[in-house]
Amino acid sequence: MELAYNALLLALDIWVVRAARPHDARRVAIAAGGFALAASLLALELGGGTFGTLRLLCYAVFVHGFATACVVGIRARSRRTVSGATFAVAAALGIIGVDAFWIEPQGLAISRVHLTSPRLRRPLNIVVLADIQTDRVGDYERAALSAAVREKPDILLFAGDYVQVGRSELDHERRALRDAMRGAGLTAPLGVYAVRGNVDPVGWEESFEGLPVTTFDRTRDVDVEDVRITGLGVDDSFDSKLRVADTDRFHVVLGHAPNFALGDVHADLLVAGHTHGGQVRLPWFGPLLTFSTVPRQWAAGLTTLPGGRALVVSRGVGLERGAAPRLRFLCRPEIVVIHVDAG
Q1: Hey, which residues does 231 pair with through a beta bridge?
Q2: Are 319 and 278 in contact (CB under 8 A)?
Q3: Of 61-75, 103-117, 208-222, 308-322, where does mean pLDDT reach its minimum?
């Protein structure tokens, strides 16, 4: 698929360079438009799904688009306006590509949220790790786990999607993730809690085997001191009509997808991941894709819901794997630290 697509785009590259002659702005614009249309149609035909299509479009933009703009700019160097414009396009694509594929995916941030609740007798520090979603546990994942532990959480929450690999590699990566958690000293005074994500196959709990972690394969409650934690089964987290009853305790509902926040959920704090913040966000627009039913502006960060409830959706630690392009743009990975003051 990728080989055929790139071969076809190479032919398009040659056509663009030839069609742009004698390199006046009008001919360059027409050639660029034709390339964009043809590349998009071919990606839709050969992509085999949303992620495959996006992967092919990344080749079109960041490989072929960059290279073709450079060649057209060099050939049009006698026409400064055209040459300057094409080199500007090439520079923009190069900078965005380097940032999106090499810098941002490794640029882990610590995001902080501050809340107050009259239901607590003392302050509470909650750390959220969502969507580690790795296909090879390495230094980056170990550093993320260690960073989470250094925040000294009272409660540590895992919001699903741990490893995303083929069946033959699953046991190895689960063991590697478990070893990384053990090496980070994974613990919290009021507990570590983990829910299942949509990429986690049966047996996902093995990643936490032998560790002090409470896992939720179905929806249930756990009470600890003056806190109730409701861990959602993965299907319930996608249920936009979910009902969760109120309690006198400080109530945290942890799910993988944030869809449940649209339901009748009575809780002080709703926590989710799944969206990756969109992975690609555009200025003044926000995330391009969230794969969630919640409004796009809910797809990352803190949202105050009716009744004073707080929804916190993490951009996640890792990336979509498989056929998806491995990039982030204006959407750094994150660990979320939620500090709740007693009010």
Answers
A1: 220, 254
A2: no
A3: 61-75
What are the tokens at 12?
A: 């398009």
Q: Give dist(CA 178, CA 212) in Å, integer.
A: 11
- Cis upstream peptide for 212 (omega within 30°): no
Q: Are 272 and 88 in contact (CB under 8 A)?
A: no
Question: Where residue 84 falls among pLDDT bands split at 50, 70, 90?
Answer: confident
**Structure token digits, residue 55:** 């992967």
Q: Concatenated DSSP letters for 138-201?
A: -HHHHHHHHHHHHT--SEEEE-S--B---HHHHHHHHHHHHHHHHHHT---TT-EEEE--TT--
Residue 78 has pLDDT above 70, yes or no: no
> H-type helices in the chain, by residue range?
2-19, 25-46, 50-58, 66-75, 80-98, 139-150, 167-184, 234-237
Helix (H) or strand (E) segment spanning residue 310: strand 309-313
Do 87 and 311 contact (CB within 8 A), yes or no?
no
CB 221 within 8 A of CB 203: no
pTM value is 0.94
Q: What is the pLDDT of residue 82?
A: 63
For the chain, list the domains and their CATH numbers: 2-104 (no CATH), 110-342 (3.60.21)
